[in-house]
Amino acid sequence: MPLHQTIQFNPTTQILIWKITESFEELLDKVVLKEKTQLRLNGMKSDLHKRGFLSVRMLMQEAGFTDLDLHYDQFGKPYLSCHNHISITHSHNFSAIIISEETVGIDIELQREKILRIADKFVDKEFDYLNPDLLEEYIKKLTVIWGAKEAIFKIRNEKGISFKDHIRVNPFSLEESKTLASLHFDDLIKDFVVYYEEIENFTLVYALEK
Ligand SMILES: CC(C)(COP(=O)(O)OP(=O)(O)OC[C@H]1O[C@@H](n2cnc3c(N)ncnc32)[C@H](O)[C@@H]1OP(=O)(O)O)[C@@H](O)C(=O)NCCC(=O)NCCS
């Protein structure tokens, strides 16, 4: 199945999600690629990574852009030729992009128990409202927190940001689909609104700077 979902979040913000079921060849056949992108693709070893990368170009095309409009800064952060912001994510058989006039970040993560082992590395104050006894909810909430921190990191893209020490995600419930978060870094506090939703056994998170 190609385009899985489109969310018209507001008049100038769109989220597009792809469920990757196509082969590498099928995807390659459908996308326009500039030489720089083709070279990057040639260097990728994993078939899943290649398909994720190409499916992002499919999403770009769905949104009315092509790979020719997509560029990367020296840190790997993507930007568009026009004034809109873009953020990109891919994980296993899903990929997603967010395009907006606002500063935005996006992340999609598979929900898995493995996150329990690394929680200490990216969670700090959030432990106050998490309940490890409710295992399924705990894993899902950790995945939201991880995704929120990745999405905010993608927005700010500054060297030295620690998920654990510098980004805080406010208490939230899985039913609400929305919370607040803040980045405390370099004597500055930046606030974000974070949205999350489940897609099959994945968690999609996107953040907008307030
Ligand atoms: C760069 C990073 C944000 C990518 O996230 P990821 O979950 O590994 O992978 P995703 O698929 O969600 O995102 C990859 C996309 O992010 C984008 N990206 C890469 N570097 C980026 C940056 N510095 N800023 C913003 N976006 C970036 C790219 O578009 C990339 O996909 P593409 O190159 O195919 O276009 C992540 O690897 C990272 O460095 N995180 C911060 C490090 C950290 O503190 N980690 C954990 C601490 S416990």
From TrEMBL:
InterPro entries: 4-PPantetheinyl_Trfase_dom (IPR008278), 4-PPantetheinyl_Trfase_dom_sf (IPR037143)
GO molecular function, one term: holo-[acyl-carrier-protein] synthase activity
Superkingdom of origin: Bacteria
Keywords: Transferase
Pfam families tied to this protein: ACPS
UniProt keyword Hydrolase, yes or no: no
Domain 4'-phosphopantetheinyl transferase, first and last residues per copy: 104-165
Protein name (database record): 4'-phosphopantetheinyl transferase superfamily protein
Organism field: Flavobacterium shii
